[in-house]
Design brief:
By secondary structure, the chain is an all-alpha fold. The protein has helices at 2-33, 38-48, 51-62, 67-77, 80-89, 98-106, 110-117, 125-152, 155-179, 181-197, 208-226, 235-244, 250-258. The chain has 13 helices and no strands. It is globular.
Length: 259
């Protein structure tokens, strides 16, 4: 059973890895602009495994951010993976050792999280091992090759490839912005505030990494206060709420039929 789960993880993770390779190649161009070597880019991608997190990392290095700023901004951008790891842990057997959970949490991404929660019933960690083994090396290799290409290709081509990454981020924010007006407003506000902070006196003297950290926490916190995500009521509470709202339950309907 475990070997089957591992093979299934490899099967599901390989297409994800191919997509990662293309995205990481563009990230490699950004890493090249930050003067990283192919080996350094491979290591950074292997231990980060996040497009937004790596973009923040590489641009922070390029802008000369301090170690503390780089660590904090990477933590803020990648914080959602801690929640994903906790959610996936609920699908494992309660006797699953901590080390196995730790390894799965290390390689969790949006796509690996999606294929894991999409599986019916309990999940074995070896399934995630297979998916991670197929996806993460391709991600890291893509970054290294992007850096190599950036060192070889003409400057115009490198500039064009750098723009491709911004197109990817635009493709990420447009679909949810169409579905939720609040997300659209927050995206527009973040654009406006980011531009304003780069022009305003005193604020513009703050490093780009620190401005990003402040704006990320501030805007997301305000959005959470204005429009918190509503959790669905448990079935028992929903039934009680329905009864209180005047919706007749099964027993009441049966009593009326008897009458």
């Amino acid at each position: 059973m475990k070997s089957n789960s591992f093979v299934e993880g490899l099967r599901d993770g390989f297409p994800i890895g191919l997509g990662y390779f293309a995205v990481a190649f563009s990230l490699g161009i950004v890493a090249k602009n930050a003067s990283l070597t192919p080996l350094q880019g491979f290591i950074a991608s292997f231990f980060n495994v996040a497009s937004a997190g790596e973009y923040a990392l590489f641009t922070s290095i390029q802008n000369g951010a301090t170690y503390a700023e780089i660590a904090l901004i990477t933590l803020v951008v990648n914080a959602r993976y801690m929640l994903m790891s906790c959610a996936i842990a609920q699908k494992y057997d309660s006797k699953t050792p901590f080390f196995s959970r730790f390894l799965v949490g290390f390689g969790i991404t949006d796509e690996i999280f999606a294929i894991t929660v999409g599986r019916h019933g309990a999940v074995e960690p070896v399934y995630n091992y297979g998916a991670i083994l197929a996806a993460v090396p391709l991600w890291s290799l893509g970054t290294s090759l992007g850096i190599l290409a950036g060192n070889i290709l003409p400057l115009r081509v490198v500039s064009a490839l750098s723009v491709a990454l911004y197109g990817m981020f635009i493709a990420i924010i447009i679909p949810p912005s169409k579905k939720d007006r609040m997300i659209l407003i927050m995206v527009l506000v973040s654009f406006a505030l980011s531009f304003a902070c780069s022009k305003l006196p005193f604020v513009r003297n703050i490093s780009g990494g620190t401005r990003t950290i402040i704006l990320t926490v501030l805007i997301s916190g305000i959005a959470a206060l204005i429009k918190p995500v509503k959790e669905p009521l448990p079935s028992s509470e929903a039934a009680d709420a329905g009864g209180e709202a005047g919706v007749p339950d099964k027993n009441t309907a049966e009593e009326k039929n008897d009458l």
